[in-house]
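ugh ok fine here u go
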Amino acid sequence: MKSTAIILTVATVMLFITVYISGGMDLVAEGLLTAGITASRALLLIIAAFLVIGQLQVLITSDMIKSWMQKFSGSRGIALSSLAGGLFPGGPYIFYPFIAGFKEKGIPFYLLFSFVSGKQIFDFTRLPLEIGLINPWIAILRNVLTFPVPFIMGLISRRFFPRGVTGASWEERDQQ
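structure:
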């Protein structure tokens, strides 16, 4: 997290300098105003998303998750997780905290990975926009061609990372 903040800070400073050189303080002020407007539009949605996530984390207990894991483990769990990811509304600022909360409850890595893959690849909430703005056949073709990808990614992650990704070396993982 610390390295991410450092990288983002350096990028922000570089952009401020570039904007200042390009258009002076007026352009910098315009950029700050635009950022403030964007943040104010997203703020209510972010607060509501975190409230929903918090309530779901309290409502869904570890025992419930263990029960679901017994019912929906393996390929069935990967399929359901991928489809649930595709149906989950909102952007990354909503579903990544959701995923982080369920990671703490002990959901296997491959199911979390399937969920994120399904969200990024399927994102069924985007389908009406694709149909309306691009072309219905292109939208359908994209969905048909990419449909197996989250399932395949889930199966691969289950095979190669059965205990999740811990940051340990391959030798340390083998010793566990």
